[in-house]
Design goal:
single chain; alpha+beta; Alpha-Beta Plaits; four-stranded antiparallel sheet; 11 helices; 4 strands
């Protein structure tokens, strides 16, 4: 390995660590600010999402450190440096795979906001990860049994193949989850998965056609872009309940124009006891059908836009929510000659 390759890779890793250290304090403060509201729907969701996001930062830093060590020590021609380089390379493969694993968990929770949904699939997600650790142990044992010699690099190839396969599995699994959610709900709102996929594609192409390894650097770029996007979304989120604010109406109108959202009815809930609005938003979220939008208006009102175009099911939904929460509500139906944007605007003006 040339000194240029090692130098470029190490520099990219240093930049990756710097980017993560710049983001970390503000990200921790942003997500940590919801800790006091952890019992509310908004606080609990943001707190758990924050733990996942901060895990990204930790893992990217570890990947960058191990990747830098692997390349830096590989340039030194000594027995001890070779051992350090090889150990760092294994650690880097593990931390990199954990980034993909965390991404899959993040996608599931970011879209569905349900820990139970993750728990149901966690065993399946952990099997490939267990395969990686088994491959690491197996490669070490096989090397020892073959008198510390692997002349043709067979064990190393198998080891790397398993890790690349597992990362590919997590990548594909995340795409499947996103496509399924979009098919069910019509849109992803603020979620931008391309901010992860495009840097990863650049990383793969760079690995295939250049001698440099820029994986940690591209990870850091992806996390930085996601953080910027999440800060933009936070402007439309009510910190107390986790529901959208009135400002989100503008985003809804854009989704309607794109054909990704088609509200046909709305229920305007009036919360009789303002102290109950935290628990109300949590109960409401678990009772709604797919492709609904919840917006908090003022201190004691929540508007739910639904795709239901029949008054009967909408009334049944309203009655169920009011019975379980003690709130009062009224139903608003979209008129035949009314566009989605006009309907949303009419509900907002009521």
């Amino acid at each position: 390995m040339s000194s240029t390759t090692s130098t470029v890779t190490v520099i990219s890793d240093v930049i990756a660590v710097i980017i993560m250290l710049i983001i970390y304090p503000t990200a921790r403060a942003s997500y940590g600010g919801h800790t006091e509201n952890a019992s509310s729907a908004g606080g609990g969701k943001k707190q758990f999402e924050g733990k996942i996001f901060l895990s990204f930062i930790y893992l990217v830093i570890l990947t960058a450190v191990f990747e830098g060590m692997s390349y830096a020590f590989s340039y030194m021609i000594t027995e001890s440096s070779d051992m350090i380089s090889a150990t760092a390379h294994i650690a880097r493969e593990i931390s990199s795979t954990l980034v993909y694993f965390t991404w899959l968990i993040y996608v599931n929770y970011r879209l569905y906001h349900k820990k139970d949904y993750i728990k149901r699939n966690l065993f399946i997600y952990l099997i490939p990860l267990a395969l990686c650790f088994a491959a690491t142990i197996g490669a070490d044992v096989a090397t020892v049994l073959s008198d510390l010699s692997d002349e043709y690099g067979v064990y190393a190839v198998i080891f790397l193949f398993i890790f690349h396969f597992v990362r590919f599995f997590y990548f594909v699994a995340s795409v499947v989850v996103i496509r399924r959610f979009k098919k069910q709900n019509g849109h992803l709102t603020f979620f931008r998965p391309e901010l992860f996929y495009i840097p990863i594609l650049i990383c793969v192409l760079g690995t295939l056609f250049t001698p440099f390894s820029i994986e940690a650097f591209m990870f850091s770029i992806s996390i930085a872009l996601f953080y910027i996007a999440s800060e933009r979304e936070n402007r439309y989120i009510d910190a107390e309940t986790g529901l959208y604010t009135d400002d989100y109406i503008e985003c809804m109108e854009q989704l309607i124009k794109k054909g990704e959202l088609s509200p046909c009815s709305a229920v305007v809930f009036k919360i009789n006891d303002i102290e109950d609005i935290k628990s109300f938003s949590g109960i409401l979220g678990g009772m709604l059908p797919e492709n609904c939008e919840m917006i908090r208006r003022g201190k004691d009102e929540v508007i739910v836009f639904t795709p239901l175009d029949n008054r009967g099911p909408v009334l049944l939904l309203m009655d169920d929510v009011c019975t379980d929460t003690g709130a009062s509500g009224r139903v608003v139906m979209r008129q035949k000659d009314e566009t989605g944007s006009e309907f949303v605007k009419r509900c907002q003006d009521m």
